[in-house]
Amino acid sequence: MVERSSKFLLIVVGSVCFMLILYQYVAPGVISFSSPHGYFTEEDEGDIFPTPDPHYVKKYFFPVRDLERTIDFQIKGEDVIVFLHIQKTGGTTFGRHLVQNVRLEVPCDCRPGQKKCTCYRPNRKETWLFSRFSTGWSCGLHADWTELTNCVPGVLNKKESKQKNLRKFYYITLLRDPVSRYLSEWRHVQRGATWKTSLHMCDGRTPTPEELPSCYEGSDWSGCTLQQFMDCPYNLANNRQVRMLADLSLVGCYNMSTVPEKKRAQLLLDSAKKNLRDMAFFGLTEYQRKTQFLFERTFRLRFIRPFMQYNSTRAAGVDLDNTTIQRIEELNELDMELYDYAKDLFQQRYQYTRQQERRQQRIKNHMQQSHQGLGINLWPSHSRQSLASKLEDVEREEREEGGEGGRTEERRDFPT
């Protein structure tokens, strides 16, 4: 009698262990008593994010490795987020989100009247964020990819008075519709902005006046008309996003005589696409909630307040005829192609990540139902059959369901 009871108990325990092991194997990370850093859990937020478009037509093929973005960001280790801030892409607002709106064990110290915040790691006085509002313009005003990748390690070694080779740098950026971005920059320059203190460092030197002529005489270009802005062939607003994301060393930096014009353009575009694709994260100004979602899922960090999408911008207030719009698109031909590529990658990443989350949630729900029935179904063979059946149900539901739950998001420009 005792032996029979012992065998029965052994079968019960074995069945429970089998189910738990199989559950973790099928849906790793679904059973989670807390997030890796205690910052983010999916259960503690409602679904505030937009519904993926079930009819979205993909333009480019991206393998899963380009769509999947989940980083075990070690804020207590040596990891550093580097924000590449391109002018007039909503980077100022996003930069403030990073220092004021991320839920952290030790929040950034932002004091009234100071332009920079102190963003130390929880366990020591070293920064985990390299950005305008944390470290300032340490690599130059609006430093680009070429400048940052060559400058950031040395700057941090100097700031922290130590040599470190183990840091992991995670580059992030924002992109914006090229026409809106161009118009916003023109309005900004019209009000007196110059960015003339930018270094444009490349291959160890700054460009000569012959390599990078000025579009205006005097201290600034305030009051310039849109026509004057478009007519300057040296205007850095043209294809700014491609130039700031590309490796300029590939084309001889700002020396236009090194590589033929068409080849130079293609090299810059290909480099910008590659660097953008390889970045840990990028967002789009026109899709604030989706940008928030992808950042949170990439770094396992959560924002305290949701991102807002605004209706009006300075660029939106400019009335243009079709001829002028076409001219701006021609001046920003590379940016137009990059944005088209980036938008497709962004939408595919969002859709992929949402689908993965929904799939894990469904498996979790089915498994919870299976666990509730363990008192009846104790046999491993039955459990395997039940699990296989439920996985088939999940896959069938995914095929049949056209979209995801959530809210829709309107296409609106973000304030400059």
Automatic annotation (TrEMBL):
Comp. bias intervals (Basic and acidic residues): 390-416
Molecular function terms, GO-annotated: heparan sulfate 6-sulfotransferase activity
Tree of life domain: Eukaryota
Protein keywords: Glycoprotein, Membrane, Signal-anchor, Transferase, Transmembrane, Transmembrane helix
Region named Disordered: 356-416
SUPFAM superfamilies with a match to the protein in the record: P-loop containing nucleoside triphosphate hydrolases
Swiss-Prot/TrEMBL catalytic activity: alpha-D-glucosaminyl-[heparan sulfate](n) + 3'-phosphoadenylyl sulfate = 6-sulfo-alpha-D-glucosaminyl-[heparan sulfate](n) + adenosine 3',5'-bisphosphate + H(+)
Enzyme Commission identifier(s): 2.8.2.-
Location, primary (coarse class): membrane
Signal peptide: none
Function per UniProt: 6-O-sulfation enzyme which catalyzes the transfer of sulfate from 3'-phosphoadenosine 5'-phosphosulfate (PAPS) to position 6 of the N-sulfoglucosamine residue (GlcNS) of heparan sulfate.
Record PANTHER family: HEPARAN SULFATE 6-O-SULFOTRANSFERASE 3, HEPARAN-SULFATE 6-O-SULFOTRANSFERASE 1
Name listed for the protein in its UniProt record: Heparan-sulfate 6-O-sulfotransferase
Source species: Takifugu bimaculatus
